Amino acid sequence: MSSVATAPAAAGSIAGVRTRRPSTLTAYRWELRKLIAQKRTYLGLGLGVILPIIFVVVQNVHTRHGHGGDSIFAAQITQSGLATPVLMLLFESVFFLPLIASLVAGDIVATEDGNGTLKTILTRSVERGQLFAAKTLAALTYAVVAVYLATLVATVGGIASWGFNSIKTFSGSTVSASEGLALVIAANACYLIPLFAVACIAVLLSTTTRNSIAGVGGAIGIVILLYIVAGIPGLEGIKPYLLTEQFENWHGLLRTPTDWAPIWHSLWVCALYAVPSLIAGYLVFLRRDVAGG
Amino acid sequence: MSDAEGAQPVRARGLVKRYKEVLAVDHVDLNVQTGDVYGFLGPNGAGKTTTLRMALGLIVPTQGAVELFGRDPMREGTRALEGVAGFVDATRFYPYMTGRKNLELLAALDGDGAAQRIDEVLEIVELAPRAKHKVGGYSHGMRQRLGIAAALLRRPRLLILDEPATGLDPAGMRDMRLLIRRLADEGITVLLSSHQLPEVQELCDRVAIVDKGRVVYEGALDSLRRQGGAQYRLHTTDDTLALPVLKTQQGIENVLAGEHGLSFQADEHHVAELSLALAQAGIGILALTPELATLEDLFFRLTEENGAARSASGDSGSPIEDALPVNPVGAAISGVAAVGRELGQERR
Questions:
Q1: Is A124–B175 a contact, with Cβ atoms under 8 angstroms apart?
Q2: How is chain B split into domains, by residue range?
Q3: pTM to 2 decimals?
């Protein structure tokens, strides 16, 4: 190795004069760069893209043979391309989008713990709390990208196949194409509320279990468990407070007049799941022993 | 508290780490002074890495505290790591990113203009030509060098290195030793954990020996070697005849015969008596050379004695043992012997 005569280290350098410490935003940016650099990041996004494509192709074949659908949006599939993203959201919101969000959120802490890179970054100048915040924000960002990427593909596919036309809402009233598009975008934003709660649970599990499979599988397991609970006779009273019930909060936006009640309800119900998960994950991350890798 | 200029680089007091029934670190005290190249010796599993993890704030001590330049990582977080860099266990990087990208990430998490030093540190560790290659394709030695580069980004005053030469080929080990020596000459205090005795002997001026979670010796390396007793090398006209004379001579201990003659331990008085005894046996002395015992010699020589002592006393070697021994020399011998056993096992 070359001489270190010009090494940056020097006995006289005073650590106390350090002033510029890294911000949480810097850590967040690097979390995103890490996600972008990993092939597995694209598995979930690929699933989010491929499903709408398959859906559009199948519907093209299906509708040529004169088959219609049961829901109001299925019935409009050939009349407006905007019916496609709504139908896709109906379909993917139940399981696939929670799965895609969990793929990253359930892995984001555990994988670094397992690979030993967590100790590499924890011996730099960024605080543990900052790193936890950056990782959580990155996981939520990924959920946003996954949701809107799937919607984008479904919208483009739908419009290309059946045109940018006006569409009927759940209430049966017709809205213009541009208003319909705005409602689709807004509906996805509403859906992000419960999806963020799922991601927060996955981050907690990723932090506490230190195992990616447990982080991802645990979050999805909770979603499935809540669906089962919702189906148990006699437990109808708790149904409005189940996280999985909030996956339909966006339906209120596609009614005339707009029904805001399920959206506001989902906001505080989802907070009941997300906030304790984040606080618990943060506290565990702050005091945990990092010895992995 | 602002950074205490002149504060001790590492000061650990009563560090304890317990994992359920296993006492990994048992009341460890460490005193690393400014300018030290401080060897932290012990066999695998002795508690070295656990101690260093506590020093860097990666794991929470069950008891006790450690201060780096007067700051406790448990209380002050990464502010306590200002001026401190290094790695524990092995260096770990993101394999899907290039070496340069890894350093850019770490520099971003360091702040304070660390990013501007990337080219410089890559040159120092001679990784500049491979900086644009993904770390996943790096050899172990390259990763270790990248670990040093990552540490240098922080302009450290204290470098904590855990087994930096482990897994390197002889040339890599030599380069690593040279680099550490040069960094020390630049004025960086080095805390070097190792079970490679030649590395420690060549680099370190002070050492702590840890065995089963306890520090059994802390002090100057020379002092430890002197405690092992004076060592002599002997060449005679007939080493085969001389060997039984040495073995029967009072005060001559640890007699070994090798390719390069005989070696033994004795004080000066008994050496004089030995020379007379050899002359009486008709054996001429070609050379009688006093030499300070090497660290490795100490380990091996004391291993057998200590192993026998342990067997005789029925010592099972439980991790949970007595408090620090009263006799520091005896404690040193015990610890050195343990390291020797470990080294012996590795060689086998």
A1: no
A2: 10-225, 230-291, 297-347
A3: 0.81
